Amino acid sequence: MKKLPAIIMVIIGLSCSAAMAGEGMLVFKTKPKDVEVYIDGVFKGRADQVLTLNIGEGNHTVKIVKGDESMQKDYFVPSGGIVKVELALDGSEDKGRLTFNFVRIDAGTFQMGSNNGSSDEKPVHTVTISKPFEISDHEVTVGEYRKFVESTGYDPPVSTGSKGSYSRNDACNWNKKNVENHPVNCVSWEDAQSFISWLNMQAGKPVYRLPTEAEWEYAARAGTKTDYACGDGEWCVTQMGWTSANSGGQTHPVKKKTPNYWKLYDMHGNVWEWCQDWYDSEYYSKSPPKDPVNNSGGSRRVLRGGGWGSSARSCRSAARGHYSPGYRSSYYGFRLVRPPGQQ
């Protein structure tokens, strides 16, 4: 029988004492076992030794070396978190890397906003998206988010409310059965940013982000000028998404409804999706015509698309939502954007 390559678990983190505030832990595997381990350029020993070290919150570079061969990656360690890392000189640890299906959205011009909605959707104005981008064809799922939580020890989304006063909520789908392909909910804008930071650390560069509000509406409309990507009647939105009319009071698996013309799923309903922008009810009257994004600050971030508990009207392409970036709700989730040509 062929002998399997040796893999040794090395713990970089806490020993018997608890981590101090602002610290976390790295837990990782190396292949082979007799490699030298460096963290942020500092030699910490060989991997066949047991290493314990408190790691400050933030970005850290982990490198393994054997002879002329080396491998390094950057990781983000959250305060109080445990980051699981696998490093192998043959690169085999990348086989389990999380991947998404992205759709290329070409540059173009569209009419943003609506005269049929709330006052913050006015005035209708011309917006140009000057550069192509790619957007994930579905909302981030429970299964995808679970890999992040298991890898980092990040606080799982089992509660709702404001940061610092979360309370457990049975509407969160995290611990329910058969939900791995449902959109993850009970995640705040800040949670989404932590997930994105983790993805970017894996990629080794800032690839992933949330869509801007303009990018989101441009992609949701998919060339249409109607209330929904399927037309103006509320009857059609249930063909494309899950709303209060057909959801049965819960999320549903992604990609089960009809996509829009650009092959994006669940842009209407299932969960509200966080965008990058700060919310301003009067932003449309002063936003630039080219690649607008509200980075001017505020107290709330933009949400788009409506969710499983929303009326059809709230799921219109132009409808705007907003909430505190630290707030978790069973109605809230997100999807990703990246530049074209990334893998």
Task: Produce a short descriptive summary.
By secondary structure, the protein is α+β, with helices and mostly antiparallel strands. Helix content is 11%, strand content 27%. The chain folds into 2 domains: 8-95, Carboxypeptidase-like, regulatory domain (Immunoglobulin-like, Sandwich), CATH 2.60.40.1120; 102-338, Alpha-Beta Complex (paralog of FGE (formylglycine-generating enzyme)).
Quickly give the CATH architecture of the largest domain. Answer: Alpha-Beta Complex
CATH homologous superfamily name of the largest domain?
A: paralog of FGE (formylglycine-generating enzyme)
CATH topology of the largest domain: paralog of FGE (formylglycine-generating enzyme)
Query: What pattern of helices and strands is seen along the backbone?
Result: EEEEEEEEEEEEHEEHHHEEEEE
Written account of the structure:
The strands form 6 sheets. Strands 1, 2, 5 and 8 form a 4-stranded mixed sheet that branches. Strands 4-3-6-7 form a 4-stranded antiparallel sheet. The chain has 343 residues and is an alpha+beta fold. It has 4 helices and 19 strands. The protein has helices at residues 142-152, 189-203, 213-221, 237-240, and strands at residues 8-12, 23-31, 36-39, 42-46, 55-56, 58-66, 69-77, 82-88, 102-105, 108-112, 125-129, 133-136, 159-160, 167-168, 272-278, 301-304, 320-323, 332-333, 337-338. It is elongated and about 65 Å long. A hairpin with a 2-residue loop joins β3 (36-39) and β4. The chain folds into 2 domains: 8-95, Carboxypeptidase-like, regulatory domain (Immunoglobulin-like, Sandwich); 102-338, Alpha-Beta Complex (paralog of FGE (formylglycine-generating enzyme)), CATH 3.90.1580. The two termini are 36 Å apart. 11% of the residues lie in helices and 27% in strands.
